[in-house]
Amino acid sequence: MAKAPKGKNEPVRPIIVKKVTVVAGGHHGGAWKVAYADFVTAMMAFFLLMWLLGATTEKQRKGIADYFTPTLVKMKEGSAGSYGLLGGSSLTDPDNYQYRAGQTGTKTLTIPRDATGGAKDGGTKAKRTASLQQRLQQKLAASETLRKLAKQVRVTQTPEGIRLDLMDDAKFSMFRLGTTILTPEAAELVRAIGQAIGPDSAGLSVRGHTDALQWKPGDAANNWSLSAGRAEATRQALMKSGVTENRFRRIEGVADQEPLIPDSPTDPRNRRMSILLMN
Fold it and tell me: Which parts pass through the membrane (predicted)?
């Protein structure tokens, strides 16, 4: 408190101190702008994530996920694209994995979502199988007999190529009992098969299968010679339907050694002809 002047009996004047708090900009400050920018950034990241999930394939998403998997770091070191987002699973560069997948192509960078891939990763094989199945369905729909026999034909994609199995059952037999002579219905079926596979230039393999029923004692014939003879008869029937002779690579009989129904070796479905369209 201030002292009173000497010689005067006057009250001391109070000293008033005013403290003014200055708010920079008041409600016009930038704090809310920072919060809003954080919100917009988070929303942008969210929509970017949604776009990535919708615009990428399963393989690409797996590559992104593997990039954040520590256990794969050592394997990815030195891989093509190892410093990129996909971390060694580049869309256009080869990798050095133990079981590496085929490349999807090196001439384009934009890959459509519905692309089936290059020739090495199954796209061409899938189209080839679908095309064959379509031609086969058209041929089998040509007559009432063939429509009934359609269930005897099974198309399977294998590592070696497309395999067509022409199978017997309890009501249908490809060959007369114990012979290499095609039944009339089977001859018509093989003719339709030959016309369906005719446009494909791939090499062919014909393999004959029998069931495990044994021959009579003392009979010179056996399942080995029977299966091989039936494979040759099938080859000749295919040639009559228009398949050129130079397409055949292998004709063989395996008797009952590769049953379709292993738990029942005598099942009639084990008697079949397998026609392989090689890759």
Answer: 34-53
